[in-house]
Specification:
35% helix, 19 strands, 392 residues, alpha/beta, binds flavin-adenine dinucleotide, 6-stranded mixed β-sheet
Protein backbone atom coordinates (compact mmCIF):
# COMPACT_ATOMS: atom_id res chain seq x y z
CA UNK A 1 0.00 0.00 0.00
CA UNK A 2 1.33 3.51 -0.82
CA UNK A 3 2.51 5.62 2.10
CA UNK A 4 0.53 8.35 3.84
CA UNK A 5 2.85 11.35 4.03
CA UNK A 6 2.47 14.53 6.05
CA UNK A 7 4.12 17.69 4.72
CA UNK A 8 4.63 20.78 6.89
CA UNK A 9 4.82 23.92 4.73
CA UNK A 10 3.21 24.85 1.42
CA UNK A 11 5.97 26.94 -0.18
CA UNK A 12 7.87 25.84 -3.27
CA UNK A 13 9.54 22.90 -1.49
CA UNK A 14 6.30 21.64 0.10
CA UNK A 15 4.19 21.86 -3.05
CA UNK A 16 6.90 20.36 -5.28
CA UNK A 17 7.33 17.48 -2.81
CA UNK A 18 3.58 16.91 -2.64
CA UNK A 19 3.37 16.82 -6.42
CA UNK A 20 6.36 14.52 -6.86
CA UNK A 21 5.07 12.09 -4.20
CA UNK A 22 1.50 12.22 -5.56
CA UNK A 23 2.86 11.24 -8.98
CA UNK A 24 4.22 8.08 -7.30
CA UNK A 25 0.71 7.36 -5.96
CA UNK A 26 1.26 8.27 -2.32
CA UNK A 27 -1.43 9.95 -0.23
CA UNK A 28 -0.46 13.35 1.16
CA UNK A 29 -1.67 15.74 3.83
CA UNK A 30 -0.05 19.16 3.47
CA UNK A 31 -0.27 21.83 6.18
CA UNK A 32 0.37 25.53 5.55
CA UNK A 33 0.38 28.11 8.31
CA UNK A 34 -0.93 30.93 6.09
CA UNK A 35 -4.69 31.40 6.10
CA UNK A 36 -4.70 31.15 2.30
CA UNK A 37 -2.22 30.53 -0.49
CA UNK A 38 -1.57 34.12 -1.53
CA UNK A 39 0.39 35.88 -4.25
CA UNK A 40 3.67 36.70 -2.53
CA UNK A 41 7.31 37.13 -3.47
CA UNK A 42 9.04 38.46 -6.55
CA UNK A 43 11.33 36.95 -9.15
CA UNK A 44 13.04 33.57 -9.11
CA UNK A 45 15.61 32.37 -11.65
CA UNK A 46 15.39 28.75 -12.77
CA UNK A 47 18.57 27.27 -14.25
CA UNK A 48 18.38 24.27 -16.61
CA UNK A 49 18.94 21.91 -13.66
CA UNK A 50 15.60 23.15 -12.31
CA UNK A 51 13.55 23.45 -15.50
CA UNK A 52 14.57 19.83 -16.25
CA UNK A 53 12.99 18.77 -12.93
CA UNK A 54 9.86 20.80 -13.64
CA UNK A 55 9.57 18.94 -16.95
CA UNK A 56 9.75 15.67 -14.99
CA UNK A 57 7.01 16.94 -12.67
CA UNK A 58 4.70 17.57 -15.64
CA UNK A 59 4.36 21.34 -15.15
CA UNK A 60 6.67 22.53 -17.91
CA UNK A 61 3.91 23.63 -20.31
CA UNK A 62 2.28 25.68 -17.56
CA UNK A 63 5.68 27.15 -16.70
CA UNK A 64 6.43 28.27 -20.24
CA UNK A 65 3.09 30.13 -20.29
CA UNK A 66 4.12 32.37 -17.37
CA UNK A 67 7.93 32.51 -17.46
CA UNK A 68 10.31 34.74 -19.39
CA UNK A 69 13.23 33.25 -21.31
CA UNK A 70 16.12 35.74 -21.10
CA UNK A 71 18.60 35.75 -23.96
CA UNK A 72 21.77 36.53 -22.02
CA UNK A 73 23.30 37.12 -18.61
CA UNK A 74 25.24 40.38 -18.75
CA UNK A 75 27.49 41.53 -15.90
CA UNK A 76 28.41 45.21 -15.59
CA UNK A 77 30.24 47.46 -13.19
CA UNK A 78 27.96 49.35 -10.80
CA UNK A 79 30.56 52.15 -10.97
CA UNK A 80 30.43 52.95 -14.67
CA UNK A 81 27.98 50.46 -16.31
CA UNK A 82 30.86 48.99 -18.32
CA UNK A 83 30.19 45.41 -19.50
CA UNK A 84 32.49 42.94 -17.75
CA UNK A 85 31.21 39.59 -19.01
CA UNK A 86 28.34 37.94 -20.85
CA UNK A 87 26.88 34.42 -20.95
CA UNK A 88 24.40 33.61 -23.72
CA UNK A 89 21.24 32.00 -22.31
CA UNK A 90 18.27 31.40 -24.68
CA UNK A 91 19.07 28.70 -27.25
CA UNK A 92 22.66 28.41 -25.97
CA UNK A 93 21.37 26.93 -22.68
CA UNK A 94 19.12 24.54 -24.59
CA UNK A 95 22.07 23.40 -26.68
CA UNK A 96 24.40 22.97 -23.69
CA UNK A 97 22.03 21.51 -21.14
CA UNK A 98 18.94 20.33 -23.07
CA UNK A 99 16.73 22.50 -20.86
CA UNK A 100 16.08 26.26 -20.81
CA UNK A 101 17.06 29.01 -18.38
CA UNK A 102 13.83 30.70 -17.28
CA UNK A 103 12.82 33.55 -14.97
CA UNK A 104 9.50 33.39 -13.21
CA UNK A 105 7.53 35.29 -10.60
CA UNK A 106 7.53 33.23 -7.39
CA UNK A 107 3.75 33.61 -7.19
CA UNK A 108 3.34 32.20 -10.73
CA UNK A 109 5.57 29.20 -9.97
CA UNK A 110 3.74 28.65 -6.68
CA UNK A 111 0.34 28.91 -8.41
CA UNK A 112 1.19 26.39 -11.12
CA UNK A 113 2.54 23.90 -8.58
CA UNK A 114 -0.59 24.41 -6.48
CA UNK A 115 -2.84 23.80 -9.51
CA UNK A 116 -0.95 20.57 -10.31
CA UNK A 117 -1.15 19.44 -6.67
CA UNK A 118 -4.90 20.09 -6.63
CA UNK A 119 -5.29 18.32 -9.97
CA UNK A 120 -3.51 15.21 -8.66
CA UNK A 121 -6.44 14.33 -6.42
CA UNK A 122 -4.01 12.75 -3.94
CA UNK A 123 -3.22 15.76 -1.75
CA UNK A 124 -5.35 17.21 1.04
CA UNK A 125 -4.38 20.84 1.63
CA UNK A 126 -5.03 22.37 5.03
CA UNK A 127 -4.33 26.08 5.41
CA UNK A 128 -4.28 28.03 8.68
CA UNK A 129 -2.47 25.04 10.19
CA UNK A 130 0.78 26.05 11.83
CA UNK A 131 2.61 22.88 12.87
CA UNK A 132 3.85 23.38 16.41
CA UNK A 133 4.75 19.88 17.58
CA UNK A 134 6.03 16.68 16.06
CA UNK A 135 6.03 13.25 17.69
CA UNK A 136 7.92 10.41 16.02
CA UNK A 137 7.40 6.74 16.84
CA UNK A 138 8.91 3.67 15.19
CA UNK A 139 5.91 3.06 12.89
CA UNK A 140 4.37 6.52 12.50
CA UNK A 141 4.73 10.28 12.89
CA UNK A 142 2.16 12.70 14.24
CA UNK A 143 2.01 16.47 14.03
CA UNK A 144 -0.07 18.95 16.01
CA UNK A 145 -1.03 22.42 14.96
CA UNK A 146 -0.67 25.31 17.36
CA UNK A 147 -4.48 25.22 17.80
CA UNK A 148 -4.25 21.59 18.93
CA UNK A 149 -5.43 19.63 15.89
CA UNK A 150 -3.52 16.37 15.42
CA UNK A 151 -2.73 14.34 12.28
CA UNK A 152 -0.89 11.04 11.94
CA UNK A 153 0.93 9.55 8.96
CA UNK A 154 3.66 7.11 7.94
CA UNK A 155 6.22 9.86 7.35
CA UNK A 156 6.78 13.60 7.67
CA UNK A 157 8.45 16.04 5.28
CA UNK A 158 9.61 19.30 6.88
CA UNK A 159 9.19 21.92 4.14
CA UNK A 160 8.60 24.74 6.58
CA UNK A 161 11.33 27.09 5.43
CA UNK A 162 14.21 28.93 7.04
CA UNK A 163 12.57 29.13 10.50
CA UNK A 164 11.51 25.46 10.40
CA UNK A 165 9.84 23.87 13.41
CA UNK A 166 10.27 20.32 12.08
CA UNK A 167 14.07 20.79 11.81
CA UNK A 168 14.49 20.46 15.59
CA UNK A 169 13.21 16.85 15.34
CA UNK A 170 16.01 15.94 12.91
CA UNK A 171 18.90 17.95 14.34
CA UNK A 172 19.44 17.32 18.04
CA UNK A 173 21.84 20.26 18.25
CA UNK A 174 21.12 23.35 16.24
CA UNK A 175 21.38 27.12 16.42
CA UNK A 176 18.90 29.63 14.99
CA UNK A 177 19.57 31.20 11.56
CA UNK A 178 22.20 33.96 11.69
CA UNK A 179 21.76 37.47 10.33
CA UNK A 180 24.18 38.03 7.43
CA UNK A 181 24.21 41.83 7.58
CA UNK A 182 22.88 41.89 4.02
CA UNK A 183 19.51 43.30 3.00
CA UNK A 184 17.68 42.68 -0.27
CA UNK A 185 15.53 45.46 -1.74
CA UNK A 186 13.12 44.08 -4.30
CA UNK A 187 10.71 45.54 -6.80
CA UNK A 188 8.48 44.39 -9.60
CA UNK A 189 7.84 46.95 -12.34
CA UNK A 190 5.53 46.80 -15.37
CA UNK A 191 7.88 46.61 -18.33
CA UNK A 192 5.56 48.87 -20.36
CA UNK A 193 5.74 51.56 -17.67
CA UNK A 194 9.52 51.82 -18.03
CA UNK A 195 11.26 54.09 -20.54
CA UNK A 196 12.39 51.91 -23.51
CA UNK A 197 16.07 52.28 -22.56
CA UNK A 198 15.41 50.56 -19.22
CA UNK A 199 13.46 47.60 -20.62
CA UNK A 200 15.39 44.41 -21.19
CA UNK A 201 15.17 40.76 -22.17
CA UNK A 202 18.42 39.94 -20.34
CA UNK A 203 19.42 38.98 -16.83
CA UNK A 204 21.44 42.10 -15.95
CA UNK A 205 23.84 42.10 -13.00
CA UNK A 206 25.79 45.09 -11.69
CA UNK A 207 28.69 44.53 -9.28
CA UNK A 208 29.98 47.23 -6.92
CA UNK A 209 31.76 47.48 -3.60
CA UNK A 210 29.54 45.92 -0.90
CA UNK A 211 26.58 45.77 -3.27
CA UNK A 212 25.18 44.15 -6.35
CA UNK A 213 21.98 44.52 -8.32
CA UNK A 214 20.08 42.10 -10.54
CA UNK A 215 17.27 42.82 -12.99
CA UNK A 216 15.46 40.32 -15.20
CA UNK A 217 12.13 39.90 -16.95
CA UNK A 218 9.33 37.72 -15.57
CA UNK A 219 5.71 37.14 -16.65
CA UNK A 220 6.52 36.54 -20.34
CA UNK A 221 8.58 39.73 -20.27
CA UNK A 222 5.66 41.87 -19.11
CA UNK A 223 7.31 42.73 -15.77
CA UNK A 224 10.85 43.44 -14.66
CA UNK A 225 12.13 42.04 -11.37
CA UNK A 226 14.75 44.26 -9.73
CA UNK A 227 16.76 43.25 -6.66
CA UNK A 228 19.54 45.20 -4.95
CA UNK A 229 21.62 43.48 -2.28
CA UNK A 230 23.78 45.57 -0.01
CA UNK A 231 25.26 45.60 3.44
CA UNK A 232 22.86 47.19 5.89
CA UNK A 233 21.86 46.66 9.50
CA UNK A 234 18.79 44.38 9.79
CA UNK A 235 15.51 46.24 10.07
CA UNK A 236 12.05 44.98 10.97
CA UNK A 237 11.03 41.36 11.42
CA UNK A 238 13.70 38.99 10.05
CA UNK A 239 10.95 36.50 9.10
CA UNK A 240 9.11 39.06 6.96
CA UNK A 241 9.88 38.73 3.23
CA UNK A 242 7.88 41.75 2.40
CA UNK A 243 8.71 44.83 4.45
CA UNK A 244 7.86 48.27 3.08
CA UNK A 245 11.06 50.05 2.02
CA UNK A 246 12.20 53.12 0.12
CA UNK A 247 14.78 54.22 -2.43
CA UNK A 248 16.35 56.43 0.23
CA UNK A 249 16.91 53.47 2.59
CA UNK A 250 18.42 51.55 -0.33
CA UNK A 251 20.70 54.39 -1.36
CA UNK A 252 21.79 55.02 2.22
CA UNK A 253 23.39 51.56 1.90
CA UNK A 254 24.60 51.76 -1.71
CA UNK A 255 25.32 55.43 -2.39
CA UNK A 256 24.72 56.66 -5.95
CA UNK A 257 25.46 54.07 -8.61
CA UNK A 258 26.45 54.28 -12.31
CA UNK A 259 24.03 56.23 -14.51
CA UNK A 260 22.36 53.21 -16.16
CA UNK A 261 21.68 51.41 -12.89
CA UNK A 262 20.78 54.66 -11.12
CA UNK A 263 18.15 55.46 -13.77
CA UNK A 264 16.60 52.02 -13.25
CA UNK A 265 16.56 52.37 -9.45
CA UNK A 266 14.89 55.78 -9.73
CA UNK A 267 12.27 54.43 -12.15
CA UNK A 268 11.04 51.87 -9.59
CA UNK A 269 7.77 53.09 -8.01
CA UNK A 270 7.90 51.02 -4.79
CA UNK A 271 10.43 48.91 -2.95
CA UNK A 272 10.07 45.98 -0.53
CA UNK A 273 12.90 44.70 1.64
CA UNK A 274 13.95 41.55 3.43
CA UNK A 275 16.97 40.97 5.63
CA UNK A 276 19.00 37.90 4.76
CA UNK A 277 19.54 35.17 7.32
CA UNK A 278 21.61 32.10 6.79
CA UNK A 279 22.87 28.80 8.19
CA UNK A 280 26.20 27.08 7.70
CA UNK A 281 26.31 24.57 4.82
CA UNK A 282 25.11 21.05 5.62
CA UNK A 283 27.72 18.82 7.26
CA UNK A 284 26.24 15.41 6.52
CA UNK A 285 23.14 13.35 5.66
CA UNK A 286 22.00 13.21 9.30
CA UNK A 287 21.05 16.89 8.92
CA UNK A 288 18.50 16.08 6.22
CA UNK A 289 16.67 13.02 7.55
CA UNK A 290 16.09 10.93 10.62
CA UNK A 291 14.03 7.74 10.37
CA UNK A 292 10.55 8.88 9.23
CA UNK A 293 11.25 12.63 9.03
CA UNK A 294 12.99 14.31 6.08
CA UNK A 295 13.79 17.99 5.54
CA UNK A 296 13.57 19.67 2.13
CA UNK A 297 14.31 23.18 0.82
CA UNK A 298 15.18 26.04 3.16
CA UNK A 299 14.24 23.98 6.24
CA UNK A 300 17.32 21.86 5.52
CA UNK A 301 19.63 24.25 3.68
CA UNK A 302 18.75 27.92 3.31
CA UNK A 303 20.51 29.42 0.31
CA UNK A 304 21.76 32.95 0.02
CA UNK A 305 20.49 34.35 -3.28
CA UNK A 306 23.98 34.81 -4.81
CA UNK A 307 23.72 31.71 -6.97
CA UNK A 308 19.96 32.03 -7.56
CA UNK A 309 19.32 28.42 -6.54
CA UNK A 310 17.12 28.56 -3.39
CA UNK A 311 13.95 27.44 -5.16
CA UNK A 312 16.05 25.28 -7.47
CA UNK A 313 17.50 23.13 -4.71
CA UNK A 314 14.05 22.85 -3.10
CA UNK A 315 12.68 21.46 -6.38
CA UNK A 316 15.67 19.13 -6.80
CA UNK A 317 15.04 17.84 -3.25
CA UNK A 318 11.38 17.19 -4.04
CA UNK A 319 12.13 15.09 -7.10
CA UNK A 320 14.90 13.16 -5.31
CA UNK A 321 12.66 12.47 -2.30
CA UNK A 322 9.92 10.93 -4.43
CA UNK A 323 12.46 8.92 -6.44
CA UNK A 324 13.96 7.54 -3.23
CA UNK A 325 10.58 6.33 -1.96
CA UNK A 326 9.29 5.43 -5.43
CA UNK A 327 6.34 3.06 -4.92
CA UNK A 328 7.49 1.98 -1.45
CA UNK A 329 5.06 1.53 1.43
CA UNK A 330 5.15 2.73 5.05
CA UNK A 331 7.84 0.21 5.97
CA UNK A 332 10.10 1.50 3.20
CA UNK A 333 10.14 5.10 4.48
CA UNK A 334 13.18 5.13 6.83
CA UNK A 335 15.50 3.56 4.24
CA UNK A 336 14.11 5.80 1.49
CA UNK A 337 14.58 8.99 3.53
CA UNK A 338 18.15 7.87 4.38
CA UNK A 339 18.88 7.31 0.66
CA UNK A 340 17.44 10.72 -0.15
CA UNK A 341 19.62 12.47 2.46
CA UNK A 342 22.72 10.61 1.30
CA UNK A 343 22.05 11.61 -2.28
CA UNK A 344 21.25 15.26 -1.64
CA UNK A 345 23.33 16.65 1.21
CA UNK A 346 26.62 17.18 -0.61
CA UNK A 347 25.13 18.95 -3.60
CA UNK A 348 23.07 21.20 -1.34
CA UNK A 349 26.14 21.95 0.79
CA UNK A 350 28.16 22.74 -2.33
CA UNK A 351 25.51 25.17 -3.59
CA UNK A 352 25.23 26.80 -0.14
CA UNK A 353 29.01 27.29 0.01
CA UNK A 354 29.23 28.58 -3.55
CA UNK A 355 26.40 31.07 -2.93
CA UNK A 356 28.24 32.38 0.13
CA UNK A 357 31.48 32.70 -1.80
CA UNK A 358 29.71 34.48 -4.67
CA UNK A 359 28.40 37.01 -2.15
CA UNK A 360 31.97 37.82 -1.11
CA UNK A 361 33.16 38.05 -4.72
CA UNK A 362 30.17 40.10 -5.92
CA UNK A 363 30.61 42.62 -3.10
CA UNK A 364 34.44 42.71 -3.16
CA UNK A 365 36.34 45.92 -2.52
CA UNK A 366 39.91 47.07 -3.28
CA UNK A 367 42.38 44.77 -5.06
CA UNK A 368 40.00 41.79 -4.88
CA UNK A 369 37.46 43.81 -6.88
CA UNK A 370 40.03 44.74 -9.55
CA UNK A 371 41.11 41.11 -9.80
CA UNK A 372 37.49 40.00 -10.12
CA UNK A 373 36.74 42.51 -12.88
CA UNK A 374 39.92 41.58 -14.76
CA UNK A 375 39.06 37.88 -14.53
CA UNK A 376 35.51 38.53 -15.75
CA UNK A 377 36.79 40.57 -18.73
CA UNK A 378 39.33 37.88 -19.58
CA UNK A 379 37.30 34.71 -19.04
CA UNK A 380 33.75 36.02 -19.64
CA UNK A 381 31.29 33.20 -20.22
CA UNK A 382 33.68 30.60 -18.84
CA UNK A 383 33.41 32.24 -15.40
CA UNK A 384 29.65 32.72 -15.56
CA UNK A 385 28.66 29.25 -16.73
CA UNK A 386 28.21 26.63 -13.98
CA UNK A 387 28.27 23.19 -15.69
CA UNK A 388 28.59 21.17 -12.46
CA UNK A 389 25.35 22.80 -11.31
CA UNK A 390 23.37 22.96 -14.55
CA UNK A 391 24.21 19.41 -15.64
CA UNK A 392 23.21 17.92 -12.27
C1 LIG B 1 6.41 34.77 1.32
C2 LIG B 1 7.69 34.36 0.66
C3 LIG B 1 8.19 35.14 -0.41
C4 LIG B 1 9.40 34.78 -1.01
N1 LIG B 1 9.85 35.54 -2.06
C5 LIG B 1 10.98 35.17 -2.70
C6 LIG B 1 11.45 35.90 -3.82
O1 LIG B 1 10.85 36.85 -4.24
N2 LIG B 1 12.60 35.50 -4.44
C7 LIG B 1 13.31 34.42 -3.99
O2 LIG B 1 14.34 34.09 -4.57
N3 LIG B 1 12.88 33.72 -2.93
C8 LIG B 1 11.73 34.07 -2.28
N4 LIG B 1 11.30 33.34 -1.22
C9 LIG B 1 12.11 32.22 -0.77
C10 LIG B 1 12.06 31.07 -1.68
O3 LIG B 1 10.71 30.77 -2.00
C11 LIG B 1 12.70 29.94 -0.93
O4 LIG B 1 14.02 30.30 -0.54
C12 LIG B 1 12.84 28.71 -1.79
O5 LIG B 1 11.82 28.65 -2.75
C13 LIG B 1 12.76 27.48 -0.92
O6 LIG B 1 11.40 27.31 -0.55
P1 LIG B 1 10.88 26.56 0.72
O7 LIG B 1 9.55 26.03 0.34
O8 LIG B 1 11.91 25.66 1.25
O9 LIG B 1 10.70 27.70 1.80
P2 LIG B 1 9.64 28.86 1.86
O10 LIG B 1 9.44 29.46 0.54
O11 LIG B 1 10.07 29.74 2.98
O12 LIG B 1 8.27 28.12 2.26
C14 LIG B 1 8.01 27.62 3.55
C15 LIG B 1 6.52 27.52 3.72
O13 LIG B 1 6.23 26.88 4.96
C16 LIG B 1 5.26 27.62 5.67
N5 LIG B 1 5.50 27.35 7.11
C17 LIG B 1 6.54 27.79 7.86
N6 LIG B 1 6.46 27.30 9.11
C18 LIG B 1 5.36 26.51 9.14
C19 LIG B 1 4.76 25.70 10.13
N7 LIG B 1 5.28 25.60 11.37
N8 LIG B 1 3.61 25.03 9.83
C20 LIG B 1 3.07 25.11 8.58
N9 LIG B 1 3.60 25.87 7.60
C21 LIG B 1 4.74 26.54 7.87
C22 LIG B 1 5.51 29.05 5.25
O14 LIG B 1 4.37 29.86 5.44
C23 LIG B 1 5.83 28.87 3.77
O15 LIG B 1 4.68 28.83 2.97
C24 LIG B 1 10.12 33.66 -0.56
C25 LIG B 1 9.61 32.88 0.50
C26 LIG B 1 8.40 33.22 1.11
C27 LIG B 1 7.86 32.37 2.24
Amino acid sequence: MPAHILIAGGGIAGLASALALARRCHRIDLFEQAVAFAEVGAGIQLGPNVTRRLQALGVYEALTRVAARPDALVVRSAFDDRELARLPLGNAMLRSYAAPYLCVHRADLHALLLAAVRGSGAVTLTTAARIGQVAARSQAVSVSSTDDRVWEGDALVGADGLWSTVRAKVLAQDAPPQATGHTAWRALVDMAALPPALRSTQVRVWLGPRLHAVAYPVRRGEALNVVVLAEAAPVGDARDWDQAASLSSLQAATGRTAAGLQALLEAVPAWRAWTLNDRDPLQGPAQMADERIALVGDAAHPMLPYLAQGAGMAIEDAVALAEALDGGDAAAVPAAWARFAELRWQRNAQVQARARRNGEIFHATGPLRWGRDAALRLLGARLLDVPWLYEG
